[in-house]
Amino acid sequence: MLESYVTPILMSYVNRYIKNLKPSDLQLSLWGGDVVLSKLELKLDVLEQELKLPFTFLSGHIHELRIHVPWTKLGSEPVVITINTMECILKLKDGIQDDHESCGSNSTNRSTTENTKSSVKPRRTIQQAAPTDPDLPPGYVQSLIRRVVNNVNIVINNLILKYVEDDIVLSVNITSAECYTVGELWDRAFMDISATDLVLRKVINFSDCTVCLDKRNASGKIEFYQDPLLYKCSFRTRLHFTYDNLNSKMPSVIKIHTLVESLKLSITDQQLPMFIRIMQLGIALYYGEIGNFKDGETEDPTCHNKDMLGNITGAEDETRIDMQYPAQYKGQELYSQQEDEQPQGWVSWAWSFVPAIVSYDDGEEDFLGNDPTSTTHQQKAQILRDPIVSIGFYCTKATVTFKLTEMQAESSYYSPQKVKSKEVLCWEQEGTTVEALMMGEPFFDCQIGFVGCRALCLKGIMGVKDFEESMNRSETEACFFICGENLSMKGLTYLTNSLFDYRSPENNGTRAEFILDATHHKETYTEIAGMQRFGAFYMDYLYIMENISGKGSTNQQDFSSGKSEDMGTVQEKSTKSLVIGPLDFRLDSSAVHRILKMIVCALEHEYEPYSGLKPDIKDENETILNPEEVASLEEYIPTRHTSVTLLKCTCTIFMAEFNLLDHLLPVIMGEKNSSNFLNTTNFQSLRPLPSIQILVDKINLEHSVPMYAEQLVHVVSSLTQPSDNLLHYCYAHCYLKIFGFQAGLTSLDCRGSYCLPVPIIPSFSTALYGKLLKLPTCWTKRSQIAITEGIFELPNLTIQATRAQTLLLQAIYQSWSHIGNVNSLSVNEALMNEVFQTIGVKSKNPLPTLEGSIQNVELKYCSTSLVKCASGTMGSIKICAKAPGDSGKEKLIPLLQGPSDTKDLHSSKWLNESRKPESLLAPDLIAFTVQVPQYMDYCHNSGAVLLCSVQGVAVNIDPVLYTWLIYQPQKRTSRHMQQQPVVAVPLVMPISRRKEDEVSVGSAPLAKQQSYQASEYASSPMKTKTVTESRPLSVPVKAMLNLSEGCRSPEERMKEFIGVVWNAVKSLTLQLEVQSCCVFVPNDSLPSPSTIVSGDIPGTVRSWYHGQTSMPGMLVLCLPQIKIISAGHKYMEPLQEIPFVIPRPILEEGNAFPWTINLHHFSMYTLFGKQVTLCLVEPMGCTSTLAVTSQKLLATGPDTRHSFVVCLHVDLESLQIKCSNPQVQLLYELTEIMNKVWNKIQRRGNLSPSSAFPETSAGPVPSSPVRSSVGTAPPDTSTCSPSADVGTTTEGDSIQAGDDSPFSDSVTLEQTTSNIGGSSGRVSLWMQWVLPKITIKLFAPDPENKGTELCMVSELEDLSASIDVQDVYTKVKCKIESFNIDHYRSRPGEGWQSGHFEGVFLQCKEKPVPWGRVLVSGAMWRCLPFLY
User: Is the pLDDT confidence value at 621 over 80?
Assistant: First the structure.
């Protein structure tokens, strides 16, 4: 009699998914014990509806279905269902991007519901006809049926799933999969749930799973098959169900864990873009970007519920014999929580499966005739609470191998092409865990981690055979990325608490405890705990929905409908925290070329993005929130928070051993690549290999973004005065903090070990913050709201290096930047020995080290829809040299220091006054604010603003600086750094030759050449029809055109530059203050005495001046204080809160000119030993006015050109120059030293190869030298020239501009100026200097009389000069009112008196002077001994 109970259950399942079955036939053969059904078609619409995925089934069929029912031993032997060969083909639903209907297409919906209804009716008649046997007690039948269902064995042989999209074909083939029930030790057994043990365990074994990813052409055929992604991989899954009691319909805890011992993935360059596409599909599914409706769109609720319930009730009807509960009511009971929610992407989709997977005995107690009143409503609600689901995936060892493919043509024309692949890169990962824990919609947590990973270089890349077997290179050399620990050391921590862990509660007969509370979760799963369990990488993603008000069901927050009752009830949180353990990243040529090659391959094909970007259009009929709703919104706004932490990073950048980046970078930058290269076979590694090593203690990145940005921004932007708190949540925020960053130089020797790093940048920390406004188009009416904002902070940064170290850094940089440069590979051995000195060995002459540090840098950036602005400060800057001293101690020589108090340094009085030490409260060295309009031609534009102040700076140009600059390593030794033969590098064709070849490429077919470029497929004889692969061969010709465009004449560039500068400057409100910069130039080294605080240069000079007798001669040059203010501007503080408004903006009509420029306190003096101070130039200054006007000329071309009139007027204060013998001597010594240094540097510059190959121009591009005569002659020059005498017209009118065509080689300055003027409009220049007086005093001792001094005084009064440069002439005028030269003599005790002839040497007066008195006598010449 059991048949009458069991048969309907089995049949309901079979008939539900399979088309055209005759129930009567099936029933008869079932009673025989075995059923064999062949060539069955699946009901695709039912499957689609059940799965609720955005996929449609193109086909689905089962080759053979066997059902074996052991009727005689139903209580002890399982029912076995075997499926032989099942094949399904899926694709994305059509119009998934554009046609997001609320419930999928209505037609399918209707047809499915009708289908289910029709399939239900006949079955119910059969089920009701089944006799109820009075002999069988209902409890017994119930328990027996439960045993049967719990022990069903399902075997699938040869399962084939295919997914097609665009040109992608993804196929999964599983040779066999078997699901059976097991006992406590996970061995096959016939089990049941008992009151003592409410647990059911099952195992699913998958053997030989193969995944292929292939490319199909336009006709849908796969031309050549790629290597499988995954080949014959076997894994096993353990399922563990825990029930609350015997009558539970749903388990309270479900655990599904899968273990893979070894996972070997292989990806070719063709598969990489397709693989990335499949990954994007997964992410889009998770975030619900693909689905029945758009994110944030409210669907028609009735339609959605109908879809849900139609589906669910259908599922339950079929397994029920007599319907005591109405189906509709029961469905609502089960799904009360999902009715009024918007599904949240993948989680809710996966959740909807749980009842379908597990509640196979749903409603059995009903159809067995229990009294429905016994199970009260309350009990039911309690039974149907959400189960806890734990899903886990564990992998002991995974490897991903990246391969490059190349075509191999077969001998016969018709035979298919073969693809030969070569491995280039391998990623190995140990102890991987992916765990997800969920309980209904309100709780979802996912943890991902792995114990260790590394990346290796394999074989060769781009023709360089750097890791072929023949090279015998060690695995440590091949390995360029290591992170985490070794699995053998760590143990099986990655399996902790999984069903494969013998220590887990399930394997020890106890119930597992789960943490389902956010605060408890965060306390338990900290970053430290994650790192202890894994070691290399740990990610924890937690999504939680908390019901604050304590109402019944948890509703998802619904902004768009604006329901206030939903707003306050639910709080959602999403936090992601990622931790990456200690990692070592080694960037050598092999690694960089492989990584970039992968990026190039990934960019090879571009697919349409899954989530179609929705236009940010504001709804006109938007609901305005009332104050209570705004207040509830203020209380809580859901955000997604991400935090990424990197611990202990080491990154080593080696010198390039080969450099073929010119074939990879253009493709990555978006230009198509076309150059061919010859490959060479031999590669020799260079040892010792210098490198830069960067260490970082910790990097922390935090990112937060509103969860429902669109709805939130629409609501907040519609408020008239949103609070700061609400505005804060309308931005995406990002914080980056870097701790303990340091860099140094090291080198790798032949044994593979590093030498001790030489520090270049000692440890420092820095922080960066940025925020970006979401949906800026909603804020167009509010121009003051910042769209982006950024803050950068750097407390201090120090860089120290000897010249040898900078040369080595330069060599490393050049090896990467000079493409194809062979010479860079041979680093001078002497240089290496100098940088990396052997421990314990003292070098004969240690080099000086320069050390520079900047402190307290703060920069802010902000942009609104109208302006971009930045402001910032730099606290101080110091540069000093550490040079070896005499007694073995190193001496400290300050070279530059700012801010420094330079107010009084313009006269030498400060040397005798007490000097205050530099205070800690000194103002910042630089403070600036700059604001630039977004649109230059915007009518309400207030123009750009630049406010800047620079404090005083003291500079000491010490001879130690010259020693540092002119260091040169000794000449190269004949033997190379390595014992092996010289490195051979892939040859790059010289440019000129290559150009010719490329021009011919357009017409001639490509020469056969081995190449690993993926783009070679384009030229293969078998053309694929996908758009991306048809590339014209004549790209290089276009490249040639670009080349000729690039070679514009310097004049053209100059014109463009002038135009750009003028546009920026014409309406610039400028306020610039620069305090005096004082430069000390000693002729011998000036170490800082240990008594004063190191670094104060004036203090050092003063202590030497007073204390040391042997003070070196020194020239002090005090540069002037500068103040520049534009017209009509009132002084403001240089540091403003940005964005800001200036009190008197310059509008479009006005102009920022004239500028007033003030210079003060310029002086020069010299210091000598024994406290001698001699002045060279007495303090002076000037006031000048700069005006520029411009008219736009009517130009024939597309670009409008300007004509400029520049006027500069300078009022100088009187100038006094004094000079004596020791000063001339000192100046001579200093210039000689500088000259020698300069010559040495020049000589070294000529020796070093400037570039790898001579630059050959692509043919001379003649720029027409004949100027157009149109618009060159001024309309009326007499008005343009302020310096022309009144009443006389200038000569410009009669001269024709076309005559002076500059064909000659020697082009004068005048012609160049006029050329620029002629072709970009005109430049008229007028400059005027006014100087009241120049006094020059020359002192010398009288050689004949000891102790007597002579002095010559020259005076020039009322000097003025003007220069007038017009398009057709240049005019210079100078005027001197009077010029006198007198001479004086000073005897001891007498003071200065006039010399011979009343001291007159030369006099310009109205009345003539008798010539006899002015004759130059021998005594006169003695006044000029400083000339000898």
Answer: no
> 1168-1207 b/e with 16+ CB inside 10 Å = b?
beeeeebbbbbbbbbebbbebebeeeeeeeeeebbbbbbb
pLDDT of residue 1090: 61
What value does the mean pLDDT take over residues 1188-1209? 69
The predicted model scores a pTM of: 0.77
Mean pLDDT throughout 64-88? Answer: 91
Supply the DSSP string of 167-206, one letter for each residue. Answer: TEEEEEEEEEEEEEEE-TTS-B------SS--EEEEEEEE
pLDDT of amino acid 567: 44
Which token pair is 485? 């620990």
Q: Which of 1400, 1356, 1351 is nearest to 1374 (CA)?
A: 1356
Q: At what angle do helices 106-129 and 23-31 cross, to 10 degrees?
A: 50
Please measure the distance between the N-terminal and C-terminal CA atoms of the chain and give it in whole angstroms: 136
If one counts every other C-beta atom within 10 angstroms of the C-beta of residue 1112, the result is 18
102 beta partners: 104
**Main-chain phi, psi angles of 872, to 5 degrees:** -175, 165
Residues whose CB falls within 8 Å of the CB of residue 234, separated by 6 or more in sequence, listed in order: 205, 206, 207, 208, 209, 260, 261
Could you tell me where the beta strands, DSSP code E, fall in 1024-1171? Answer: 1069-1074, 1077-1082, 1114-1118, 1121-1125, 1155-1168
CA 558 to each of CA 478, 708, 776: distance values in angstroms, whole numbers, following the listed order: 54, 9, 22
Residue 879 is predicted with a pLDDT of 92
What 3-state class would DSSP assign to 1363?
A: strand
Cα separations (Å) of 864 from 768, 869, 940?
20, 9, 15
Which pLDDT score, from 0 to 100, does residue 435 have?
Answer: 94
**Alpha carbons 565 and 201: distance in angstroms, whole number:** 44
Distance CA 543, CA 521 (A): 11
**28: three-class secondary structure by DSSP:** helix
Q: Which of 58-62, 392-396, 458-462, 697-701 is predicted least confidently?
A: 458-462
Query: pLDDT-derived band of residue 4, with 50, 70 and 90 as boundaries?
Result: confident
Question: What is the C-alpha to C-alpha distance for residues 383 and 1098, in angstroms, rounded to an integer?
Answer: 86
CA nearest to 803, candidates 774, 835, 840, 757: 835
- Strand ranges (DSSP E) for 672-730? 689-706
**CA–CA distance, 473 with 467 (Å, rounded to integer):** 7
**682 contacts: CB under 8 Å, gap ≥ 6:** 465, 984
CA dist list (Å): 467 to 475, 886, 1040: 10, 51, 36
pLDDT score, position 1201: 64
